[in-house]
């Protein structure tokens, strides 16, 4: 695996990877890699001849109250993991390569960025859209993979790719990879490590409550009632508060007070112990 941290070295390296018409899959990350990331890498390998991964802790997606400096940085350990997975290229730019002096451009995917997690983190999804657009232009992949765990992020990136007519990758080549779950249904997340043994057990109640709500909605129960039961179930399981529990259009993230034929997603963010957990599931 080649590790590159300068833009002038990246361009010829990408050209070489794509030489002879080879296809390139791309997994953008902020490092501190866990099983969820490695699942994306394995899926990337299945979808293209070559795989590139980026590690860049993007300052523009951290708010003023969020500790950018405390974000875990483990480049050597991450690189060893990626090497073990057979990744071809690791793009690990420095902040000055990504945002040189005088950098001024921002991408904002209006509307989709203001709801759900975006409501509490103004500017966060601008930072995500901006850096992902730059990463796409730098790596020029045929296909890019993102975890469905961050459904809002995935919806925003797909919308950006469609709105800006991106070709590398095309919007329909932005692949959402299903959330990896523990045996008891808890979505894998680096935040789970902050839970005590008791909180960890209680946390499984979130996905259970979500599945129950989905069954109710699909069976024709009014959405408001199903969401009210969901909230009670999540709090009853041991969560201390719920930031949101919404049924939304899977693509536009528009709130759905009524479940109709559109692809819909149930999205929840709730706090337990020191952690704020998010999860989402298809409603079908
Ligand atoms: O999901 C992440 O790790 C980040 O938001 C991403 C997509 C790499 C952009 O910095």
If you average the pLDDT, what whole number results? 97
| Total helical segments | 9
Please name the fourth-level CATH homologous superfamily of the largest domain: HUPs
Structural class: alpha/beta
Poorly predicted regions: none
Radius of gyration: 19 Å
CATH architecture of the largest domain: 3-Layer(aba) Sandwich
N-to-C series of helices and strands: EHEHEHEHHHEHEHHEEE
Characterize the overall form: globular
CATH class membership of the largest domain: Alpha Beta
Strand order of the largest sheet: 1-4-3-2-5-6
Q: How many DSSP-defined strands?
A: 9
| Fraction in beta strands | 15-25%
- Percent in helix: 25-40%
Span between N and C termini?
41 Å
Major sheet attributes? 6 strands, parallel
Return the CATH topology of the largest domain.
Rossmann fold
Structure report:
It is globular and about 55 Å long. The longest helix has 22 residues, at 197-218. The chain has helices spanning 7-17, 35-47, 75-84, 95-98, 117-120, 124-139, 151-163, 197-218, 223-237, and strands spanning 2-4, 24-29, 50-55, 89-91, 143-147, 174-177, 241-249, 264-272, 275-283. It has 2 domains: 2-177, Rossmann fold, CATH 3.40.50.620; 190-283, Pantoate-beta-alanine ligase, C-terminal domain (Pantoate--beta-alanine Ligase, Chain: A,domain 2, 2-Layer Sandwich). The chain is an alpha/beta fold and 284 residues long. Helix 7 links the parallel strand 5 and strand 6. The model has no long low-confidence stretch (mean pLDDT 97). Helices cover 38% and strands 19% of the residues. Helix 8 (197-218) runs antiparallel to helix 9. It contains 9 helices and 9 strands. It has a 6-stranded parallel beta sheet, with helices on both faces. Strands 7-8-9 form a 3-stranded antiparallel beta sheet, with helices on one face. The termini are far apart. Pantoate is lined by residues 28-30, 58, 61, 128, 131-132, 150, 153.
């Amino acid at each position: 695996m080649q590790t590159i941290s300068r833009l002038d070295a990246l361009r010829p390296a990408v050209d070489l990877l794509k030489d002879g018409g080879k296809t390139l899959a791309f997994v953008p990350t902020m490092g501190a890699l866990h099983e969820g990331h490695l699942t994306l890498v394995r899926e990337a390998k299945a979808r293209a001849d070559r795989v590139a991964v980026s590690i860049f802790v993007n300052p523009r997606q951290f708010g003023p109250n969020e500790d950018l400096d405390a974000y875990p940085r483990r480049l050597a350990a991450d690189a060893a993991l990626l090497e073990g997975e057979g990744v071809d290229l690791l793009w690990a730019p420095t902040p000055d390569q990504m945002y040189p002096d005088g950098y001024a451009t921002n991408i904002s995917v209006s509307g989709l960025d203001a709801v759900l997690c975006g409501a509490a983190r103004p500017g966060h999804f601008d930072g995500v859209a901006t850096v992902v657009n730059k990463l796409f232009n730098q790596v020029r992949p045929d296909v890019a993979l993102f975890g469905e765990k961050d459904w809002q992020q995935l919806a925003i990136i797909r919308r950006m790719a469609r709105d800006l007519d991106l070709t590398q990758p095309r919007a329909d080549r932005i692949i959402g990879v299903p959330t990896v779950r523990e045996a008891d249904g808890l979505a894998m997340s680096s935040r789970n490590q902050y839970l005590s043994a008791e909180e960890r057990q209680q946390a499984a109640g979130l996905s259970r409550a979500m599945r129950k709500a989905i069954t109710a909605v699909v069976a024709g129960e009014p959405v408001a009632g199903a969401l009210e039961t969901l909230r009670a179930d999540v709090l009853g399981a041991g969560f201390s508060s719920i930031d949101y529990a919404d049924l939304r259009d899977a693509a536009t993230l528009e709130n759905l007070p009524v479940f109709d034929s559109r692809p819909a997603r149930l999205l929840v963010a709730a706090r337990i112990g020191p952690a704020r957990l998010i999860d989402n599931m298809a409603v079908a």
